[in-house]
Amino acid sequence: MTNKRLMIILALVVTLLSIPLIAMQFSEEVDWDIFDFTVMGVLLLGTGLLCEFVLRKVKTLQNRILLCGAILLVFFLTWAELAVGIFGTPFAGS
After folding, report:
1. Res. 46: pLDDT tops 60
2. SS3 labels along 27-45
C-alpha cells in the first residue's frame, strides 16, 4: 500500500507540473522557467511526502487530519506568497 501511495504522489506532482508546461505552449501569459518548475516541484513533492510520513507514523485519525491540514495550510500560504506576494516578504521578491 505504501509504495502505491508514493507512486500516486509522484504521478500527481508530474501531472500538476505538466499543466503550466502545456499552457506555455498555447499562451504567452504563462511564462515559467526551470527555477519555477524546480521550486514548485520541491513544494509539491515535499508536501506529499510530509503527508505520507504523517499517515505512516501518526496513529489516530484526528491527529492525522490535523497534521495534514496544517501541512497543506503551510503549502498554500507559501504558494500564495511566491505567486503574488500576499504578505510582502522578501521571500516573494518584493
Report:
1. yes
2. CCCCCCCHHHHHHHHHHHH
Q: Which residue has the cell 507559501?
A: 78
Quick one: how many helices (H) and strands (E) in the chain?
3, 0
pLDDT(2) > 70? no
Spell out the residues 6+ positions from residue 89 whose beta carbon is closer than 8 angstroms to its own: 81
Interior angle at CA 20, CA 38 and CA 86, nearest 5: 75
List pLDDT tens digits, range 62-91. 999 999 999 999 999 999 998 888 887 877
Per-residue cell: 57: 507514523
Which sign, positive or negative, has the C-alpha torsion 16, 17, 20, 26?
negative
Amino acid identity for residue 33 in this structure: D
Nearest Cα to 53, choosing from 36, 37, 71?
Answer: 71
This prediction has a pTM of 0.88
